[in-house]
């Protein structure tokens, strides 16, 4: 963690040519004078002051150079009715005698280009006119490389124009200004946006920010614009409504630009902006009137940085705000704040003896903070832990704070809450701040902490990068980004303890992104078919426990839809399988049962199932579907069969009989009769009863007779057959009116099989065909009485 060093004075203005006068100007402010504007030249050898609102003929622009730089200070004043100065800009001039020039820009567009030559001092190189119209007025201007960008007011010719239309009398213009040995040359003017409201323009190396001002029409002060000249793209950002939209700049008309977003932007609250400044990363720092600082990235991402805790700032009160590298500096009510932009943590806070403070650019070191006050120039430096001194225990404090905040999650034992326990419980609430601390300076003492959290920090970093890509993605890339985002989030959640909060969040992810969630869970479990077409999974033991963990919902109350609306992970996976890969659902339940059988010993309750078989939980997911289809009925049968439970298998066989799918009936009977003699007897008895009622099973009698239990006697067989014979009222025996009758010839192979096994059977029975079983009635009674052959 970087630490701010002591505030040290680097200049008392004695190293400037006119240091005493500089001190006097900074110490005094006449009545009615506006706040001073102070900036340094790119080489740091010149200090410029812009004094607005001074009496006539007094200098308004003054430049003070350090001793040894050369001769000649710059003092400029202008006769009335010269309009006020809009800005002082330093422009690059690689082809000129110096590497930079100073451009002084007035409201009406007149621009003076000044250069400094050590032997001659300040020299006026050229005077230019930026604007074309005589009534034009520049309200804000900035420079980006060799180009100027400004907001220009073009008053309408109709003096009685209504205020609504008059609010859109501005335009955003750009023009190249090239400075060479032959002087300065203006390029052609280009209007980026016309019919625009008033904006303050600020330029980073790649983007231009158009920020609403106090004079901006209220209905369009709810958002700001970010223009990228290289890509000819404009991004509309409305942080209050969480709205970001980017589009190629096809039309320069403001109303056409925002027309497609009007419905979303109208209900959004206006932006609360007091002060703006550019950050070193190309973003925009925004200070609200309530003292809250946000960072707006070029892609439209809006991130909270720090809350200074100020009570309502007036628009006229100057608040110095500047970024030095990754450090945000701000002076509010005489207090200097140093804030880490990356983590949003306060580095240091110092009380200053003056409120007249200006931040200066440091040409030597980006991270070095320079302050100009009426008494001199002061500097802040940063020291790393290796430079001596014991580092601040910020990291230890963070772990301690998290431990205290989540103390209730500890067990009631005396065990110490370690870093590993915090990580396992997902108790670190500030991953970005923590990663910043670990990245910039990590003492050797915390090496174990870094290694413990490295995976999580990398995951959070990837997640943040993906979110940034999603903001700027085209419509064709949104689906891919969403899938990747959901995959990372589901993977992260599956590494945590699925408490109620995390499970509710996982439910929300599955409900919002069902297809992406299915792909994510399939990837996490590594579900796939092998070469034999069987479903396999390569999930870890911990992941299986999470799949099977948690209480089982009570599906008897459909309105609850689970545990107060939260569905366990197993049910979520079953729902995804049913929706996107229904044929895999029975195999998945079977895989889960195999893991349960290998990992838990069954007692009164079935391990993680909580007493409810997995196939019943999967069936409950099917029952929640409002419209049951034929494929759902097939899935129900497969789920019953894959459970291999006697009651479930019998239920499946009965469903197949009801559907008259006799081949599947016989196949299921052959497969599951081997599980137990009792199940074999139940299945055979059920099928023998069906055989007695109709002739649909006749093609499968050979397979059916093989299933006959060893303990079944002739009397048992005949009793079952006779009990289930169809009613023959009105039909003369032995023939039936409809269909082929049940004959002794069909039953004879079974009776012969029982005879060979030495069980009770009728001997010497060779009746003519057709011979119905009703003729066997006389033999049933003696057989039941125990008559032996």
From TrEMBL:
BLOC-2 complex member HPS6 N-terminal domain residues: 1-379
Domain of life, source organism: Eukaryota
One Gene Ontology term from the biological process aspect of the record: lipid metabolic process
One Pfam family it belongs to: HPS6_C
Stored SUPFAM superfamilies: YVTN repeat-like/Quinoprotein amine dehydrogenase
InterPro entries tied to this protein: BLOC-2_complex_Hps6_subunit, HPS6_C, HPS6_N, Quino_amine_DH_bsu
BLOC-2 complex member HPS6 C-terminal domain residues: 397-758
GO MF assignments: GTP-dependent protein binding; small GTPase binding
GO CC annotations, alphabetized: BLOC-2 complex; cytosol; lysosomal membrane; nucleoplasm
PANTHER family with a match to the protein in the record: BLOC-2 COMPLEX MEMBER HPS6, HERMANSKY-PUDLAK SYNDROME 6 PROTEIN
Protein name in the entry: HPS6 biosis of lysosomal organelles complex 2 subunit 3
């Amino acid at each position: 963690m970087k630490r701010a060093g002591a505030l040290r004075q680097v200049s008392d203005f004695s190293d400037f040519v006119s240091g005493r006068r500089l001190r006097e100007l900074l110490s005094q402010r006449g009545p009615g004078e506006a706040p001073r504007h102070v900036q340094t030249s790119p080489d740091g050898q010149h200090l410029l002051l812009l004094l607005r609102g001074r009496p006539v003929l007094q200098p308004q622009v003054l430049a003070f150079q350090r001793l040894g730089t050369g001769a000649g200070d710059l003092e400029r004043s202008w006769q009335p009715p010269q309009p006020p100065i809009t800005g002082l800009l330093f422009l690059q001039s690689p082809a000129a005698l110096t590497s930079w020039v100073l451009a002084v820009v007035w409201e009406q567009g007149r621009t003076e280009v000044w250069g400094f030559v050590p032997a001659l001092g300040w020299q006026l190189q050229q005077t230019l006119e930026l604007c074309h119209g005589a009534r034009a007025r520049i309200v804000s201007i900035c420079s980006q490389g060799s180009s100027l960008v400004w907001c220009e007011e073009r008053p309408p010719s109709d003096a009685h124009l209504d205020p609504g239309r008059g609010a859109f009398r501005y335009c955003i213009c750009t023009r190249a200004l090239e400075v060479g040995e032959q002087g300065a040359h203006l390029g052609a003017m280009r209007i980026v946006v016309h019919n625009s409201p008033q904006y303050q323009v600020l330029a980073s190396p790649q983007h231009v920010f158009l920020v609403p001002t106090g004079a901006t029409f209220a209905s369009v002060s709810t958002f700001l614009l970010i223009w990228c000249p290289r890509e000819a793209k404009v991004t509309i950002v409305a942080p209050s409504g969480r709205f970001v939209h980017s589009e190629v700049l096809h039309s320069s008309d403001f109303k056409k630009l925002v027309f497609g977003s009007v419905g979303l932007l109208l209900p959004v609250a206006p932006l609360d902006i007091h002060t703006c400044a550019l950050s070193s990363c190309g973003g925009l720092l925004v200070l609200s009137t309530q003292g809250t600082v946000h960072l707006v990235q070029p892609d439209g991402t809006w991130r909270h940085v720090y809350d200074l805790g100020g009570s309502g700032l007036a628009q006229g009160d100057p608040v110095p705000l500047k970024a030095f590298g990754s450090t945000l500096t701000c002076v509010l009510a005489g207090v200097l704040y140093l804030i880490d932009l990356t983590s949003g943590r306060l580095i240091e806070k110092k009380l200053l003896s003056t409120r007249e403070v200006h931040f200066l650019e440091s040409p030597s070191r980006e991270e070095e903070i320079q302050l100009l006050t009426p008494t001199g120039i002061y500097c802040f430096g940063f020291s790393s832990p290796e430079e001596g001194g014991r580092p601040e225990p910020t990291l230890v404090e963070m772990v301690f704070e998290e431990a205290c905040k989540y103390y209730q999650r500890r067990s009631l034992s005396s065990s110490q809450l370690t870093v590993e326990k915090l990580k396992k419980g997902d108790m670190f609430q500030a991953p970005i701040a923590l990663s910043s601390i670990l990245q910039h300076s990590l003492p050797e003492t915390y090496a174990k902490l870094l290694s413990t959290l490295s995976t999580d920090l990398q995951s959070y970093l990837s997640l943040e990068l993906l979110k940034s890509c999603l903001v700027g993605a085209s419509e064709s890339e949104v689906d891919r980004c969403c899938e990747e985002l959901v995959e990372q989030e589901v993977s992260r959640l599956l590494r945590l303890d699925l408490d109620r909060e995390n499970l509710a969040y996982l439910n929300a992810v599955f409900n919002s992104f069902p297809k992406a969630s299915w792909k994510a869970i399939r990837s996490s479990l590594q579900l796939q078919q092998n070469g034999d077409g069987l479903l396999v999974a390569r999930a870890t033991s911990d992941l299986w426990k999470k799949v099977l963990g948690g209480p089982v919902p009570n599906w008897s109350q459909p309105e609850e839809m689970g545990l107060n609306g939260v569905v366990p992970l197993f049910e979520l996976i079953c729902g995804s399988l049913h929706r996107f890969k229904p044929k895999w659902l029975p195999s998945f339940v079977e895989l889960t049962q195999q893991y349960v059988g290998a990992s838990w010993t069954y007692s009164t309750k079935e391990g993680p199932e909580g007493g409810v078989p997995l196939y019943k939980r999967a069936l409950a997911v099917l029952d929640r579907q409002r419209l049951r289809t034929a494929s759902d009925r097939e899935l129900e049968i497969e789920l019953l069969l894959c459970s291999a439970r006697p009651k479930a298998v019998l239920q499946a066989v009965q469903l197949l009989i009801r559907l008259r799918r006799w081949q599947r009936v016989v196949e299921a009977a052959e497969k599951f009769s081997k599980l137990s003699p009792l199940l074999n007897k139940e299945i055979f008895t059920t099928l023998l009863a069906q055989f007695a009622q109709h002739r649909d099973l006749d093609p499968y009698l050979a397979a059916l007779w093989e299933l006959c239990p060893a303990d079944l006697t002739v009397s048992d067989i005949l009793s079952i057959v006779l009990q289930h014979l169809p009613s023959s009222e009105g039909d003369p025996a032995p023939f039936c009116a409809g269909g082929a009758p049940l004959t002794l010839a069909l039953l004879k192979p079974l009776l012969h099989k029982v005879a060979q096994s030495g069980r009770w059977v009728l001997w010497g029975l060779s009746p003519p065909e057709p011979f119905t079983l009703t003729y066997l009635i006389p033999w049933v009674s003696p057989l039941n009485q125990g008559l032996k052959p």
